[in-house]
Design a protein that fits this description.
eleven-stranded antiparallel sheet, single chain, two-stranded antiparallel sheet, alpha+beta
Length: 315
């Protein structure tokens, strides 16, 4: 009996940028103007060695940076778009090493960089009446860790193009949940870091320098009435046991509404709205590097855009 060919998944989350002010904007008010001005910014970034964008995670040593961004003009139907190919890296990898096929080992030094030049992001310009913005299609291929390309895309939009990915407001979240009687999926993740570790043996306490306990809990649910989803959001009882909660609402039209609630003195909230599509790729397409061919990427994103536009024909 032949083994079933292995299939991998490419995820294509879709985001919307903040609206661009027509009166005072870098990008102009035409599609050609948006495309050209974005190119001009990228050209400046690639040649200005004093301008270097990095982002580090809070309380983590590793740093993500953008070495350069290449772009390719493309068309989706009659619409002009830009396909970005970003070279990103991770540095400050003070723990870890590289081992080659010949068993040669290279220990990472603090300023060494682990690079990848296959972070692909498609920018689709939108002008709707007086509203100017970008749709951002992120190509999360299976060779990357979860949300790796999305983090690079957010970094480029915020710190290079100065047009960050838009976050939604609480009112919009509640309105969108209320508009659907049944939410097809909800995922809840609780985390907490506690400085009080009561499990340290008493005879070791005199040597204790630091001790933390990380607690995690994940819940996945399906087909929940919207009123119960809203109750979950409004119930902040989690703060008695956890410092942070992330709720993802998976709507019927492939949208994903995410709220992150962090509790310090008060609950600090951030909201995000994205569409989530995916398609399968074969093992041979992955191993032969076909998934990194620009024509291949554009052809597959065309299908994603067609599905997305059919759900958003008013935009």
């Amino acid at each position: 009996m032949k083994n079933k060919p292995k299939e991998y998944i490419v995820k294509v989350p879709i985001y919307t940028s903040e609206n661009i002010n027509n009166d005072n904007t870098l990008f102009g008010t035409t599609y050609d103007g948006m495309i050209q001005s974005a190119k001009d910014v990228i050209d400046r970034y690639n040649t200005d060695y004093a301008w270097h964008v990095t982002s580090d995670k809070r309380a983590k040593t590793s740093v993500t940076g953008i070495n350069r961004i290449d772009y390719t003009d493309c068309k989706i139907g009659r619409d002009k778009c830009l396909l970005f190919q970003a070279t990103a890296y991770k540095t400050k990898l003070i723990d870890g090493y590289y081992e080659g096929e010949d068993s040669k080992v290279i220990i990472f030094k603090e300023n060494d960089k682990l690079c990848s030049d296959t972070h692909f992001i498609l920018l689709y310009p939108n002008i709707f009446h007086d509203v100017v913005y970008w749709r951002i299609f992120v190509y999360e291929d299976p060779s990357k860790t979860n949300d790796e390309v999305t983090r690079v895309a957010k970094l480029i939009m915020k710190d290079v193009l100065k047009c960050p990915i838009r976050s939604i407001k609480e009112e919009r979240l509640l309105s969108d949940l209320t508009s659907q009687k049944l939410i097809c999926g909800m995922e809840i993740a609780f985390t907490s870091i506690d400085d009080n570790d009561d499990e340290t043996p008493p005879y070791l306490l005199e040597y204790l320098v630091d001790s933390k306990v990380k607690k995690e809990k994940k819940i996945k649910l399906e087909n929940i009435p919207s009123e119960d989803c809203i109750k979950t959001y409004q119930d902040i009882g989690f703060t008695h046991s956890y410092n942070k909660r992330q709720i993802k609402y998976l709507l019927n039209n492939k949208r994903e509404l995410t709220v992150i609630q962090e509790f310090r003195e008060n609950v600090i909230q951030t909201f995000e709205d994205s569409f989530n599509y995916s398609f399968g790729v074969s093992e041979s397409e992955l191993k032969e590097g076909k998934i990194f061919d620009k024509g291949y990427i554009i052809d597959h994103i065309k299908g994603v855009i067609a599905n997305f536009m059919s759900l958003n024909s008013d935009n």
